[in-house]
Amino acid sequence: MEKSGIEPRLIIVCGLPGSGKTTLAKVIESRLRAVRFSPDDWMDALSLNIYDEESRGKIEALQWKFGQELLGFGLTVIIEWGTWGRSERDTLRLRARALGAAVELHYLSAPVDVLLDRIQRRGMEQPPIERDTVSRWFEMFQAPTPEEMALFDAPLVADPASGSN
Ligand SMILES: Nc1ncnc2c1ncn2[C@@H]1O[C@H](COP(=O)(O)OP(=O)(O)O)[C@@H](O)[C@H]1O
Ligand SMILES: [Mg+2]
Question: What pLDDT is recorded for position 6?
Answer without folding.
Answer: 73
